[in-house]
Amino acid sequence: MLGVRKWQLMKEIFTFFGEKIEADAQIELAKGTSVRNLKRGEQLYCTGEIPTGLHFIRKGLIGLVVSGPTGNEYLIRLAKADQYLGHRSLFAAEEHHATAVALEDTEVVSVSKAIVLRVIETWPKISLLLLEAVSKELKQAELGRVSLADKNVTARIAESILFLKTRYPEHQWTRREIAEFCGSTTPTVIRTLAKLEAEGIIRQEGRIIEILKRATLLQLAENL
Amino acid sequence: MLGVRKWQLMKEIFTFFGEKIEADAQIELAKGTSVRNLKRGEQLYCTGEIPTGLHFIRKGLIGLVVSGPTGNEYLIRLAKADQYLGHRSLFAAEEHHATAVALEDTEVVSVSKAIVLRVIETWPKISLLLLEAVSKELKQAELGRVSLADKNVTARIAESILFLKTRYPEHQWTRREIAEFCGSTTPTVIRTLAKLEAEGIIRQEGRIIEILKRATLLQLAENL
DNA sequence: CGGAGCCTTGAACGGTTTCAAAAGTAGTGG
DNA sequence: CCACTACTTTTGAAACCGTTCAAGGCTCCG
How many domains does chain A have? Predict the structure, then answer.
């Protein structure tokens, strides 16, 4: 349902841009918008930078990465095609608290802050949709914290592969990415996946992970 | 700075209510608002309930509690006087994902959803302030997750008592509350506090905790 | 074909939790 | 005002889960 609303938001904003672009006649893109192509590993923005606007993902997948004091890195949020990024820092009027890295080759449309604000002024209802989106992200983050504190690694990894493969099925999730997503380490993820495979819950074919018993995995994820 | 903005928001909303109440003449409170007094331990709302509106804290302290699958409880967010609660679920149009418990005797003004929406309609700018507030809460939750994953207990406890005693200095924080806030256990918090006291960084007088070397504590919190 | 990045495995270590039991503290009602 | 009850604090010892470090093999891509 979040997806539907976001789609509406996207549509409205891009309708607006469509009008703007037509008015500007020959200009390829409206002033204040730009398109970037990122290869896997390239970053869209960096921790500490001041947000310049909003970023819409057209194609691909971007992860928000934070590196903790010990140097370990953590995937705290994801954005795929038709989702946006950079809104938190923009609306909080703060520096970016994470680095946005492309997990696949990705195409991004960036919209300047000025235009975003103008769009919101034109359709005030949009801010309620944004509020809804951020509120849902807040829930996910807060419950994620509880998972991290209360569940053992197996449960967290089960939870993670269910979430990641359901919500971002096209992406080839690496063990490292799974580890960074669930707050663990690569060796532990590998061992756990091996255990799950031995129990017939998943199947591994090289880097590919296939879920065989979704229900059992879900139970593992919810329980201890 | 969040505080200032929130204050503005509160002021605007209550100004609105003030007008409303006067118009209603003899009615003690406008339709759709109510006042409740909660004793320590009483709950304002419960996980799974459908949000009825927004709650403003007039006096006291409320904690959002989630209990994980193992039965342990976690303090995921706090709201003191002049702050509000219930906004996340309200704007996400979801059930409450946590239970709101009074940590002290607390006085709460609750405003119905209908009135909140009318207020926002009247002053669309308010939704930008709300967006800012939720965005900052999102940052806190996401970075909190990284802390939990990357820092050892000592660092997290140092971080917690700095945060809690700075932001909510009037409250008598129990070891249990500190444990639930930083994702640890009561015995561990006690041992860690004892260690910090032995190192002369804090002083304990019964249940009272006094920070002696703020800088050292900060260093402990930031480092490993 | 070469190199970077990812996967895999082993063994050892260490930090936290867990459980339990006792002492302290606060708040309640007779 | 005291006694009772419930909650919080405190401490010990044992167990365990997951990390860490290191080294070798694999895979994909240029």
Answer: 2
Question: Domain span at residue B156?
Answer: 151-221
Which residue, A114, A129, A146, sits at the end of a domain? A146
- Whether B60 contacts B167, CB under 8 Å: no
Question: Which H or E element spans position B14?
Answer: helix B2-23
pLDDT bucket at B46, cuts 50 / 70 / 90: very high
Of the partner residues B66, B124, B130, the one whose CB lies closest to the CB of residue A143: B66
Based on the domain organization, do B209 and B142 belong to the same domain? Answer: no
Q: In the prediction, which pLDDT does B27 show?
A: 37
Q: Is the minimum distance from the CB of A176 to strand D below 7 Å?
A: no
The verdict on a CB contact (< 8 Å) between A132 and B92 is yes
The number of CA neighbours under 13 Å toward the Cβ of A183 is: 27
- What is the tens place of the pLDDT at every residue in B179-191? 999 999 999 999 9
| B146, B178, B202 - which closes a domain | B146
Contact check, Cβ <8 Å, A98/B74: no
Q: Which two tokens stand for residue A159?
A: 């939870």
